[in-house]
Amino acid sequence: MSFVPGSSRQPGPRQLQGSRPGLLDPTQPSRVLRYPNSTLSFAAFDPLAASGNAQPRKYAPDADPARPKRIVIETTPGNRVPSKWRFVPRARRAPGTPGLGDEGVWPRLVMINGEPFILSEDQWDIYKLDPAYDCFIPAAPHHPIITRKDPSLEGPSHRVSSTNDYPKKRRLSSPAPDAEEHRHLNKKFRTVVSLVTDDEGTDVEEASESGDEDEVEEIVIEESPRRDPRNSNRAKQRRKAREEQTRERREKVKAKSGSTFKSNRSRTPEIVDLTMDDITPEPTTANGAPAAGPTKRKVFHGSESPEETSPRGHSYQSNKRARTLSPGAARADLDRKRAERERRRMAQLHERMNGLKEQREQQFWKELFAQTPLPTPPPSQHNGDGQHTAEQAPPSEEDAERQAAIEESRRKLAELEKDRPLWEQEAQKRAMRERMEEEARRLRKEEERLRAAEVAAEEQRQRQRAEAAAAEEQRRSQAEQTRVQQEREQRRRKERARWSYGPWTIGRAMERYKMLSEEFDATKFTADNPLDFERVPWPVLHAPVTLRLEDIEWSAVEAFFEAAKKHMRAQDYKTFVEKSHKRFHPDRWRARGILKSVADEDLRNCLEVAANTVAQALTPIWRAMKG
């Protein structure tokens, strides 16, 4: 028997995962890693964690909830050198692609030198760190593209110096002539942002990496416990100047986009990277204020690149704000204002406390006077003639009001004393009612607990009964299977003993076929009584001892019915062929569910193929007899 194999599938794109460089390019680790055999780790950058301040930052309501920036951390084997981290540069983007910080969902399909690969985000960042490759994100629905840069198009300023131990992407090979003059600059990364044109004439906006470091500096300044208020103004001035320069540069490039470029180099995206490795901290004075020095950013004017060497010098214009107040005076002014605010706050607190104290004293004396009766003034005893006349001075209006208030208070106290038994009785009733409610709640909880315990016990009993019933059913099933297996083995032994001895002739083959056919037609095959190869009446002339599944062939079936035709009458042969044709018809087997009783899938498939072979061989014999 032969089986036709199915169609093979085409292999899918190769997957590149992990943070190890050089999966495709063996030379990639030498460009990406600072130290040999070091490992890379990628994470999202948190400015607060970088600044070391544990206090949560209060973001402005209009803050842009952009995606966290990615950083790469390089760790040497055995931590012989402290780990270093840096920002992962952004990829080039086509105009109109949404989200400057969002580069899509990873892993995703990326075209690397014209071949499709499934890249994880770490592998994508590794190729962005490699200066020999260009990463570009086109407009939807195109996939990101990674291409190898042409070494002939890269200027000497973009190549990594062989003597440099700390190579970075697009690092200057040699410092500018005035680098020694500005060695105290405190900015570690500086990048010029420009709108350039690629080879296809599409405007591509290069993302500035200096924004990442500026944001770090601004957050560290904002979160400092005693920050100089001038730092925020300086950051705003730098941001405003940077935005103005970017806007002017874009307008100039757009105005010149219609003109024809004379050289291929002008069509190549040029990114002027002024990356500086000087991490010398800014010198400070004794009082903590920054010392005077050339620590401000220089604005470069002109069309020439800073990295181009020219016989004439470069003109720089400093945008440093002129100092109008000394650091000591500013700090003294801040301390004075802080002391003034603290003094006003303490004065308000004392005033409020004195007011509350006077109010309590007035309330105390008012209640005391209300409970004390006024003394009766003695009668007047002055008379010139010695006659004593009792004359009372008329009470004033204020005394009358006070006396009325006292009488009203006494009346209310008397009413309260009169109603005291009712209050006590109501209080006792309320306490009794609360005790009864508490007792009822306790009894209800106890009843619920008992009911829950009873339900749990009943569920446990039902579960045990179900497990016992399942075990009994399994035992009976196993016993039934054992009995059926024993009967099957006994029947096989009998058949083997009956048909295995003596010469095998056509008559014995036909006799065995008829006997097995009657048993096959009357048996109901189920999972407990499955079908096997020996119980099928195969119409072949082979001896049962040597009969195998491979012997059920078209020619063997035709030979069997040719021999039966010679040993039977015409009418009996016709009935014999019709019954055999119905017996092996595929619809008859499906209706009886014969193949469903076979648990072994391979045996079931083989029996189905053999039965279909017999049915296909019987069909022309049955048609010839009908015709």
UniProtKB/TrEMBL annotation:
Domain of life, source organism: Eukaryota
Entry GO terms, CC: nucleus
UniProt feature, compositional bias: Low complexity: 281-294
Segments of this protein annotated with the region Disordered: 1-31, 147-440, 455-492
Coiled-coil region(s): none
Primary location: nucleus
Biased composition (Polar residues): 1-10, 381-390
Nucleus among keywords: yes
Basic and acidic residues bias (residue ranges): 241-251, 332-364, 401-440, 455-478
InterPro entries: NFKBIL1
Keywords annotated in UniProt: ANK repeat, Nucleus, Phosphoprotein, Repeat
Any GO BP: negative regulation of canonical NF-kappaB signal transduction
Compartment(s) of residence: Nucleus
Listed Acidic residues bias regions: 197-221
Name recorded for this polypeptide: Uncharacterized protein
Organism: Lentinus brumalis
